Structure formats: C-alpha cells, structure tokens
Amino acid sequence: MTAVVAGELAGHPQASAFAEVVESVHHRYALEVVAGFRLCPFLGDPTPKRSGQTARGPKDPSAAFGSFCVVLDREPVVETACRLVVEATSQVVHLVYPLVHLDCSSFERFGGELHKAVALAHPERPVHATFHPDMEGDRSSASRIIGLLRRSPDPFVQFVPEGLHIGGTTYLDPSRIELSLLALGRDENEPSLFERLTDDDYDRIRRTQDAIKEERARRYQPFLEALSA
C-alpha cells in the first residue's frame, strides 16, 4: 500500500509513517465493513452463490483504493483537494483527512464545494461521496441507512467516474478490476442492500466500526502528538 501524502504537514518527518497507518486503518474498514458486509456491489460477493459460479469483484479491497491520498491539513482546502483529484493517475480518488475536526455537515459542505471545483477542472466530471465518523443514519428506510453505513474512520471524500457510483458505497477502481464485471451488476432476484441486511448485521457493523475507531485512536495517538508539536 502506498498512499499519496499531501497538505500543509506533508513535509513533517513523521508524515509518511503516519500515512501508512492511516491507510492500514482504512484498509481494515474496507475489508471488514465494506467488503465484509458486501456494502459495495462492485466489490462482489467473495463467495460463489452456486456451485461452479465464480465470485465477482476483487477479493482484496485494497486493490480498489485507487489514488489514496492522506491530506495532512488541519482545515480542508478546496484548491489542494481539487489539484489532487485532477492530477490523480487513477479514475477513483480517496481524499482522507485524519487531522480535520469539522463536524459532519461542515465536511459535507466542503465535499460539495470540492465537487463544483472538480467539475470545472476535470474533463470527465466525476461524482463524489462524503464519509464521516459522525455521519447519522438509521434502519428506517433505504435512504437513511446510507449515513449509518458511511461512518468511516476519518472524514474523506471519494470521487468515482460518472455512472459507476449507482448502488455503491465505496472503493471501486475501474483501472484495476475487470470492467466486464461491472456489466453483470446485481442479479435481478438478489435482494437490495436494505432488504438483505438484518438487525444482527447492523449490530455487527456498528461493533466493527467501534472496534476500528478504537484502533484508530490507539495507533494515531503518537503521530497526532508529533504533528501537533
């Protein structure tokens, strides 16, 4: 795993080591939450449904990170973020902000402002989604569960090409998986995410999110102290 390090503290002696830890924590989130509960259809089900049927999508979510950028800004800057998206070599970009303390609504507004800037500067006009540790949601409807499932270890903004975001939650990189798989989509007879997830699944997702949050706090602490010195 190799993250792009950017932002005002990118030149700090501990920046690269911290970025590796950030990427590792987000890899766990992708593996245990996103792939573990099949929250993104493009990752595919890791186990065949019928004898002789192959699994669809990459087994390791890190293969779908695309350009994973750890942005070491204390406040998100639209210009910096836009440049990272436009200059990225992958069609999918994740901009992660481990030092930002904006509340969820403020970070979503930043994501919207960034989207406008990227739409003006990027020839393919990718779409975006925001993720935040304090994102709110519940099990009452298909739309309300999105917030519940997008509680990520850190605030981040994801950009994907137009048309490939429908039905997905996170982590798709068409430059690193077979595009032919995308045409398969979801089986017509397969239940939707809202229909498929049980109360037990939601409880397990929350417990997993909490465990990742604890790991984040423990592993980030020495770096946060060094970066704030």
Provide structural commentary:
This protein has one domain. It has 229 residues and is α/β, with parallel strands linked by helices. 40% of the residues lie in helices and 10% in strands. Residues 42-59 and 165-186 have low confidence and may be disordered. The radius of gyration is 17 Å and the shape is globular. The relative contact order is 0.18. The chain has a 5-stranded mixed β-sheet with strand order 1-2-3-5-4, with helices on both faces. The chain has helices at residues 15-35, 78-87, 104-121, 145-149, 179-182, 193-196, 199-228, and strands at residues 4-6, 67-71, 93-96, 127-131, 156-160.
| Unreliably modeled segments | 42-59, 165-186
Work out the count of structural domains: 1
Element-by-element helix/strand order = EHEHEHEHEHHH
Distance between the termini: 27 Å
Average pLDDT confidence is 80
Look at the helices and sheets and give the structural class.
alpha/beta
What percent strand? 5-15%
For the largest beta-sheet, the strand count, sense and barrel status come to: 5 strands, mixed
Task: Round the Cα radius of gyration to an integer and report it.
Answer: 17 Å
Count of helical stretches = 7
Helix content: 40-55%
Topology, number of strands: 5
- The largest sheet has its strands arranged as 1-2-3-5-4
Shape: globular
